[in-house]
Design brief:
Number of strands: 33
CATH topology of one domain: Methylamine Dehydrogenase, Chain H
Protein name: Vacuolar protein sorting-associated protein 41 homolog
InterPro entries: Beta-prop_Vps41, Clathrin_H-chain/VPS_repeat, TPR-like_helical_dom_sf, Vps41, Vps41/Vps8, WD40/YVTN_repeat-like_dom_sf, WD40_repeat_dom_sf, Znf_RING
CATH class of one domain: Mainly Beta
Largest sheet: 4 strands, antiparallel
Membrane topology: Peripheral membrane protein
CATH architecture of one domain: 7 Propeller
Function: Plays a role in vesicle-mediated protein trafficking to lysosomal compartments including the endocytic membrane transport pathways.
Number of helices: 27
GO molecular function: zinc ion binding
Radius of gyration: 62 Å
Strand content: 15-25%
């Protein structure tokens, strides 16, 4: 069997071709005979042997037909494109061309060995019954209209013809001197490509020819490769020259002797004969032949891949013993040697995956399979994935292996369970736990319980994380609850276990137990749990615990749900914890001053004890607070400000003022209090109290000016009394007085200007006429103001206020004032209606 030899033992470069030995009938043939030549058709193979036999084979190497052509070596076999006609030549000069499925044939025996034969590619057509043979000369045979064959010598005199290839209308052949190309249409030879190394024997190192397409010929001879392109000559250049010419587009040397060529897309497949020198004997010996894929460039080439082939009997073979045939349609390459036929194929995606798996590149193999899943035949994505997981596990990459399970196992519950048990066997359940499916699919509850027990034994935090992340319906909740409780017997204060147990109780809808644990742990989720599951009936006896945990959140929750837990109930529960009771009642009062009115008396003591800064605001805002009780408490505790407020609110302003002055000694507050009460007697008391206290006098002088005449205070000051900052105080009094005078004058100017403007406006308005028509009535008698008979005389009085009267309906003006006023709007005072418009006719 053929195998590839890598240049380095651990090479990471993937081969381009794969090889297999053509067996079955071929094996039987080559056990008794030796292969001399072969040609390839898309449908079958034709193999010639040294004993003059020609075998037709299928692509698996099975014999389908056998021809005994000659007792000596078959030199060449040629098939037309249809595969219906075959030409054969042998070493004893025999030439046969015959139809495989028809009776037509040509038989001829020449007096010299015939080395080559090529039938017309379209030999099946009646107009193309042509073939060429080559020995010492190249002959073209053509059947005439009377079914007779006539021959024409195309070339001779340059040694034996050893290779020929016919493509379209062009025939290329090689003799001892070089390569010629003949145009069958124009009957002209269009080129001669001389061989480079004339030192090589042409019979031992024959020329290899192949057509890449109808105009591109590839020549390999010795170590030289030439790529020739047949081009049309321009009409202006023809003269006596052929209509076509050949241009060598690429030429380069190879490392070894060429035994065969074949095209592969824009690359070349080259079969090379290799000779190497033994390190021990220093003698030259025949090494294994090589099959290289190269990329031709203009003057050099790039090696893509190179494989050494182990063919049977390679040690005795020569360069001429190897042939390279190929099937254009399927990119199959046949390496023919006397004792072996090896088939080289382009590697497909399955082969690529095989190579990746062999190199343990499982991730790349998996990716390649996913990309080409429609084209792969021998591999399954799942099998590759499972092999990848096993490889990772063997290598100890447990986390990566577990993570890959998500992608590879997908929704296959049975495979998931199998992998979980495998991870259990190697003690790596923790590694796979984060990646277990939690929805589609759902595994057996036992799988999840097994992993939870694993964590419970060694990792409380990990156990808690899984309980939080996994839905409660994945496992038997009661089993896990019991397991946690068993562990709590050993460590009853473990907060992680207690919290997890509370979560399990919540999943099980055992909210009472869950709430109790949360409160014990003072866990932040306790309020969320109460709201989410409406557990207010369960917390009526746990209000103190809630308040101890977070009084702000607890109070807000209780006030937001008064319909579920009444204010009375909360206050009763907090009776033994007055500081918490105060927090609750204070927030209640802030929300609504009237809801907790029954507790306002209690709140006085609570504020006095726990929150004095908010006592005075409470007393000011509450309308339900008993003032006598409040005054008693404040006086007992000597709360001066609160006592002052209560005394003033109860009407005892003089006592309040006295307390400010005697207890607080704060003249500014006393003055402020007197201003608020706006009571002259209080000002008098304040002056009397302050008259013998110079600092108080200074305060009064600075602030009294706008409420009391400063002269009253100044006259009472004793002569010789030293008053601090007296000058400044007097200056301020004078400045305040001047300011008042200026303000009065300014206001007077504004009032005068406004009065004058309004007077002018009123005058303009009163100067306007007033419309009187039939719709107007007398405001006294309520009859129409105008008589129905316009010819009768009438007298009407119209006031500027638009009220109208018959003159006779108005009362006579008094003796004291001749002015007449509208009885309706200006009966007593002069106003807009004082002026009169009188209409007479």
């Amino acid at each position: 069997m053929a195998e590839a030899e890598e240049q380095e033992e651990e090479s990471e470069e993937e081969p381009k071709l794969k090889y297999e030995r053509l067996s079955n009938g071929v094996t039987e043939i080559l056990q008794k005979d030796a292969a001399s030549c072969m040609t390839v058709h898309d449908k079958f193979l034709a193999l010639g042997t040294h004993y003059g036999k020609v075998y037709l084979l299928d692509v698996q190497g099975n014999i389908t037909q056998k021809f005994d052509v000659s007792p000596v070596k078959i030199n060449q076999i040629s098939l037309d494109e249809s595969g219906e006609h075959m030409g054969v030549c042998s070493e004893d000069g025999k030439v046969q061309v015959f139809g495989l499925y028809s009776g037509e044939e040509f038989h001829e025996t020449f007096d010299c060995p015939i080395k080559i034969i090529a039938v017309h590619p379209h030999f099946v057509r009646s107009s193309c019954k042509q073939f060429v043979t080559g020995g010492k000369k190249l002959l073209l045979f053509e059947r005439s209209w009377m079914n007779r064959w006539k021959s024409v010598v195309l070339h001779e005199g340059e040694g034996n013809i050893r290779s020929v290839k016919w493509r379209g209308h062009l025939i290329a052949w090689a003799n001892n001197m070089g390569v010629k190309i003949f145009d069958i249409i124009s009957k002209q030879r269009i080129t001669n490509v001389p061989r480079d190394d004339i030192s090589l024997r042409p019979d031992m190192y024959p020329c290899s020819l192949c057509w890449k397409d109808n105009v591109t010929l590839i020549i390999g001879w010795g170590t030289s490769v030439k790529i020739c392109s047949v081009k049309e000559r321009h009409a202006s250049e023809m003269r006596d020259l052929p209509s076509r010419y050949v241009e060598i587009v690429s030429q380069f040397e190879t490392e070894f002797y060429i035994s065969g060529l074949a095209p592969l897309c824009d690359q070349l497949v080259v079969l090379s004969y290799v000779k190497e020198i033994s390190e021990k004997t220093e003698k030259e010996y025949c090494a294994r032949p090589r099959l290289d894929i190269i990329q031709p460039l203009s003057e050099t080439c790039e090696e893509i891949s190179s494989d050494a082939l182990t063919v049977r009997g390679f040690q005795e073979n020569e360069c001429r013993d190897y042939h390279l045939e190929y099937s254009e349609g399927e990119s199959l390459f046949y390496i023919v040697s006397p004792r072996d036929v090896v088939v080289a194929k382009e590697r497909d995606q399955d082969d690529h995956i095989d190579w990746l798996l062999e190199k343990k590149k499982y991730e790349e193999a998996l990716m390649a399979a996913e990309i080409s899943q429609k084209n792969i035949k021998r591999h399954k994505i799942l099998d590759i994935g499972l092999a990848y997981i096993n490889h990772l596990v063997e290598r100890g990459d447990y986390d990566i292996a577990a993570r890959k399970c998500q992608k590879i196992l997908g929704k296959n519950a049975a495979l998931w369970e199998y992998e979980v048990y495998k991870f259990k066997e190697i003690g790596q359940l923790k590694a796979i736990s984060p990646y277990l499916p939690r929805g589609d699919p759902v595994l057996k509850p036992l799988i999840y319980e097994m992993i939870l027990h694993e964590f419970l034994e060694s990792d409380y935090e990990g156990f808690a994380t899984l309980i939080r992340e996994w839905p409660g319906d994945l496992y038997n909740n009661s089993v896990i609850v019991q397991a946690v409780r068993d562990h709590l017997k050993k460590d009853s204060q473990n907060k992680t276990l207690l919290k997890t147990l509370a979560e399990l109780y919540t999943y099980d809808k055992n909210y009472g137990n869950a709430l109790e644990i949360y409160l014990t742990l003072r866990h932040k989720d306790v309020f969320q749990l109460i709201h989410k599951h409406n557990l207010f009936s369960s917390i009526k006896d746990k209000i103190v615990l809630l308040m101890d945990f977070d009084s702000e959140k607890a109070v807000d929750m209780l006030l937001d749900n008064e319909d579920k837990i009444s204010i009375k109930k909360v206050v009763e529960e907090l009776e033994d914890r007055p500081e918490l009771q105060h927090v609750y009642l204070h927030k209640l009062f802030k929300r609504d001053h009237h809801k907790g009115q029954r507790y306002h008396e209690k709140q006085i003591s609570l504020y006095a004890e726990y929150d004095r800064p908010n006592l005075l605001p409470f007393l000011r805002d509450s309308t339900h607070c008993p003032l006598e009780k409040a005054l008693e408490i404040c006086q007992q505790r000597n709360f001066v400000e609160e006592t002052v407020y209560l005394l003033s609110r109860m009407g005892n302003s003089r006592s309040a003022l006295k307390m400010i002055m005697e207890e607080l000694h704060d003249v500014d507050k006393a003055i402020e209090f007197a201003k608020e009460q706006d009571d002259g007697e209080l000002w008098e008391d304040l002056i009397l109290y302050s008259i013998d206290k110079p600092p108080f006098i200074t305060g009064l002088l600075n602030n009294i000016g706008t409420h009391v005449d400063p002269i009253l205070l100044i006259h009472r000051i004793k002569e010789g009394m030293e008053i601090p900052n007296l000058r400044d105080s007097l200056v301020k009094i004078l400045q305040d007085y001047n300011l008042q005078i200026l303000l009065r004058e300014g206001c007077k100017k504004i009032l005068v200007a406004d009065s004058l403007s309004l007077l002018k406006k009123m005058h303009r308005t009163q100067m306007k006429g007033v419309l009187v028509d039939e719709e107007n009535i007398c405001e006294s008698c309520l009859s129409p103001i105008l008589p129905s008979d316009a010819a009768k005389p009438f007298s009407v009085v119209v006031f500027h206020c638009r009220h109208m009267f018959h003159k006779e309906c108005l009362p006579m003006p008094s003796m004291n004032s001749a002015a007449q006023f509208c009885n309706i709007c200006s009966a007593k005072n002069r106003g807009p209606g004082s002026a009169i418009l009188e209409m007479k006719k």
